[in-house]
Write a structure and sequence with these properties.
5 helices, about 20% strand, 5 strands, 5-stranded parallel β-sheet, alpha/beta, about 110 residues, single chain, Rossmann fold
Length: about 110
């Protein structure tokens, strides 16, 4: 199983990748939504961790594109935004799993279980 990490903060992406590797996952990182959508083709068995505050194509747009696929991967969104801002941004995605930064590996693995 691959875990695709779409995160523009290199330190956060790297920390997530290292932690997931330690749990025997195969992480792949992308710095923006456009690069991820052009390069990756996640299967239904894979997971995508996507930052909602991406530059360019925002994380919400990436999530919607993934959800519209015939066999979408598991999706976990991450964000450092305020609750009010998140509620506004996610009103069309009420069932999306969203984890607030700072993250812990326990939070992430529970969301992916």
């Amino acid at each position: 199983m691959f875990v695709h990490i779409v995160e523009d903060d290199a330190a956060v992406a790297d920390a997530l990748a290292i932690a997931l590797e330690d749990l025997d996952h195969r992480p792949v990182t992308y710095r923006d939504g456009e690069t991820f959508l052009a390069a990756a083709n996640p299967s239904a068995e894979d997971w995508v961790i996507v930052d909602l505050g991406l530059p360019g194509k925002c994380g919400t747009e990436v999530v919607i594109e993934l959800m519209n696929r015939a066999n979408p991967p598991g999706i976990v969104a991450i964000s450092g935004k305020s609750r009010t801002s998140l509620l506004r941004q996610l009103r069309d995605l009420p069932d999306l799993r969203v984890l607030r930064k700072p993250l812990s590996i326990e939070m992430l693995t529970a969301a992916m279980a």
